[in-house]
Amino acid sequence: MTDILRSTHFEAVGITLLDIGPLRGTTALDFLVDDDRSTNIYLVMGPNGGGKTTLLEAIVACFDMLAAEEHDTYAIPSLDRDEGGVQLDAIVHLDDGRSAQTYLLSIVLGTPGLLKHWSEDELRKVGAVDQIQLRYGRRRGSSKIIALPESAPPAMAFAQGILDEMDSPTQGLFGSGGRFPTVLYFPSDRGISRHASEDRAIVRPRDLTYAPVHRFGSDKSNWADTLDNLFVWFAWLDDDREKECRQLVNELVFRDGHKRLGPVDRNRLRVPVEVDGYTHGLDELSSGERQLVQLIARIAAHMTRSTIVLVDETEQHLHLVMRRRLMTILKQWAAAHEGLSFILTSHQSDTLRILAPKVREDGLRKGGCLVKPKFKGQQ
To answer: Which of 15, 146, 304, 308 has its C-alpha lying 20 to 30 A from 337's C-alpha?
Structure first.
């Protein structure tokens, strides 16, 4: 039996899609920059319906496979109809406790199999000794999707290590203690919604443990999933995370001092927003403010030392000043935290100008691409 290999580093370097959604034929994104390092902030531009969300959901689907030994669906219609394929490539450092090795790991979904073979020269440039495949598909005679036995033993051991790490509690902000990779996905319907006050209680947030994927859409469905409850739980733990999260929000979102988040109201179980002598709840912030608070608190609370943050429709609910503020925050964090990267989508030219992919900035490795619907046969 292969030893469990713990991932000490995970860096996405590209994704290839074949006949997925509106992206017919082969679509390939390269996340490498000139020095053969992966970008830490990457912008996907394109029109509505062009395939931007499809690309993000393909990345999510690859990480979703790591969350269980078997699955009923890929959650991508094309793959579930046995059409098309997805391949996510990443540089991984794997350690079995005695020695460490660097591989090019290809997570492969769908019937076509491996979509991109890396040459020896390409592997050498990224420091990998070999390309190893972790392939998911339906086993013969079963409808279940599993990691197929033709997957490389180190890749299978890597996947088992993630399964063993599942549901481990987080220990602090900004990935302290978390070794395995995770994706934090913010779909376009993200935000903070109103929830019934009678549902409030001191309960452990359901997603405050390790998982390969966390989704943060609108949080209206369950008190345990709300941002208020995250702050309440941190306050109950009394380990400084509640104070640190509030300080981050106040410094980055409410930096003009006009309003600020106050300490958790332990009687009403809510985070008070203090404005000119009166208070209101998080759900009464503007839609743009709610989005920024959600992004900042969730990223800080749920990231590991290898984290890919996916933000769909980056400018959603944000006017130009807020867009600039969000991009400034993401740039600062990408530069400050090794192992943290962002993949953003947008259809607004202002977002492209704010990111300025071709302008060099200290600590940033920027990239981007334009996607549009592509029909079968188009190149």
So the answer is: 15
Strand order across the beta sheet in which 340-346 lies: 213-215, 182-186, 307-311, 340-346, 41-45, 366-370
d(CA 230, CA 295): 13
Q: Which residues contact 34 (CB under 8 A, 6 or more apart)?
A: none
Quickly state the pLDDT bin for 193 (edges 50, 70, 90): low
For the chain, first and last CA: distance in Å?
Answer: 44
Q: Which helix (H) or strand (E) holds 24?
A: strand 23-30
Count Cβ atoms within 10 A of the Cβ of residue 319 and give its class: 0-12 exposed, 13-18 middle, 19 or more buried: exposed
Report CA 163 to chain centroid distance, whole Å. Answer: 18
Question: DSSP secondary-structure letter at 223?
Answer: G
Q: Name beta bridge partners: 14.
A: 30, 89
Q: Which residues contact 46 (CB under 8 A, 6 or more apart)?
A: 52, 345, 347, 370, 371, 372
What tokens does 80 get? Answer: 């579930």
Maximum alpha-carbon separation in the chain: 67
Please report which confidence band the pLDDT of residue 2 belongs to, taking 50, 70 and 90 as the band edges: very low
Distance CA 118, CA 96 (A): 25
Confidence band (pLDDT; 50, 70, 90) for 6? Answer: confident
Nearest to 35 by CA among 370, 373, 366, 377: 366
Give the helix/strand (H/E) hosting 92. Answer: strand 85-95
Q: What does DSSP say about strands 145-147 and 131-138: parallel, antiparallel, or unpaired?
A: antiparallel
Question: H or E element: which one contains 85?
Answer: strand 85-95
Residue 58 Cα distances to 86, 88, 293, 307, angstroms: 7, 8, 26, 16
pTM of the model: 0.94
Distance CA 325, CA 317 (A): 13
Give the C-alpha separation, 91 to 106, whole Å.
Answer: 9
DSSP state letters, 117-150 = PPPHHHHHHTT-S-EEEEEEEEPTT---EEE-TT
